[in-house]
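Run: sequence + fe (ii) ion -> complex structure.
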Amino acid sequence: MTAKKESNDALELLIDDNRNVRKLFKEYEKIHEKAAAEDKLELVEQICTEFLIHADVEEQLFYPAVRDAIKDEELIDEAEVEHQTARDLIKQIQAMMPDDELYDAKVRVLGEYVEHHVEEEEKEMFPKVKKAKLDLDAMGQEMMQAKETARTGFLSAKSKGKGSGRRASR
Ligand SMILES: [Fe+2]
Ligand SMILES: [Fe+2]
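>> structure
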């Protein structure tokens, strides 16, 4: 679970999410060879949910504001395409079981991909955002609320459609 943040700054919030998702991928690296299928499944489910919530909130609130403020369309376009590609990969992973061929490969490629994406955000996008005249505290507040709403939505979708999309376990 993500620890509650004191700071409301939008960038702090996003960097915190990145730290969290990196940690989860690292954990997967560590356990993937030996862990039981259900433990892997649970961890991967957590990774996917965290990434999807983060990406939704970025697309709803952060990217549009940043697009207006930093005058670098290409950077935001690229980030949005990367989200979409990650979502596609997540969809494939969520339709699989941990003992399926290529499951580990897909999760690890997702990890590399997300790493590349968050690096670009932190090293290229965020410095530009810092220089732009954006109310990052207000945006952070809004994003925090949107995250809660998104999380509630994800949790209720999960409890309704348990296991849907994934083929029956063996
Ligand atoms: Fe992103
Ligand atoms: Fe991000």
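>> summary
Residues 14, 54, 58, 118, 121 surround fe (ii) ion (ligand 2) (CB under 6 Å). The mean pLDDT is 92.
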